[in-house]
Design a protein that fits this description.
Layout (H helix, E strand, L loop, with lengths): L1 E2 L4 E5 L8 E4 L2 E2 L2 E6 L2 E5 L9 E5 L2 E4 L5 E2 L2 E10 L3 E2 L4 E12 L2 E9 L4 E8 L3 E3 L5 E8 L4 E10 L3 E10 L11 E9 L5 E4 L6 E4 L8
Parallel strand pairs: 1-9, 11-19
Antiparallel strand pairs: 2-6, 3-4, 3-7, 5-6, 7-8, 10-12, 12-17, 13-16, 13-18, 14-17, 15-16, 18-19, 20-21
């Protein structure tokens, strides 16, 4: 009734002798063997989607009463950046969370994180698996992620140029994902120049003028 690509499925019915085709929602089975007139063993093909199983034999084509469901794991990735805005040369921390909404375990989960070209990586950590930080993008090999569980990756960087910088994280696994829209996220951060305060003696009324070139918050 359900499985992933490569699953061996036993199909029960009748008039299967000399069957010429088996398909999973229109995708031909990777292979099949007619055991006898009432039983076929078939392997779920790569790229199959949930739907009817069809068998074509000399008597015609029949389909299963119920859908065969392709097991899947809905992986999602979210990211935060703190602080935003950040001053050039200060630490910027990306917190990336990968979550498996199920309904089955996602196998061999991998994270790809592309940093802006105008940042320097300071440190990296993960709560699952390992990170390869020797090149860009950063690759996270997170292992298997159980249903309703999550993994967190923390990247600390130092911006080296002012402006808007982007960080993009995407996630995938060896298990089919029914919704790819939540499998990638881009975080934009504003990098401000260093704040240089200057003071000028106005030489009148005992006044001094304090100026700075960029908006200042929490000073």
């Amino acid at each position: 009734t359900h499985g992933v690509a490569g699953t061996v499925v036993t199909i029960n019915g009748n008039s299967f002798t000399n069957a010429s085709a088996v398909a999973f929602n229109g995708i031909p089975a990777a292979s099949f063997v007619v055991t006898n007139n009432s039983t076929i063993g078939a392997i779920v093909p790569a790229g199959a989607t949930s739907g009817k199983i069809t068998v074509t034999a000399p008597g015609g084509t029949g389909q299963s009463a119920a859908d065969f469901v392709i097991d899947s794991a809905d992986l999602a990735v979210t990211a935060t950046d703190l602080p935003d805005p950040v001053f050039i040369g200060s630490n910027l921390v990306y917190t990336i969370v990968v979550t498996n909404a199920g309904p089955i375990t996602a196998s061999n989960v991998h994270l790809t994180n592309t940093l802006s070209g105008s940042v320097t990586l300071i440190s990296a950590s993960t709560t699952a698996g390992s990170l390869d930080t020797n090149a860009s993008p950063i690759i996270g090999t997170l292992g298997d992620l159980a249903n309703q569980s999550s993994a967190k990756v923390i990247l600390t960087v130092k911006p080296t140029a002012t402006g808007i910088i982007d960080n993009t994280a995407s996630v995938g696994s060896d298990t089919p994902d029914p919704s790819l829209a939540n499998s990638s996220v881009t975080t934009s951060t504003t990098v401000l120049p260093l704040v240089f305060l200057s003071s000028t003696n106005l030489m009148s009324n005992d006044l001094v003028r304090i100026t700075w070139p960029t908006p200042c918050n929490s000073f």
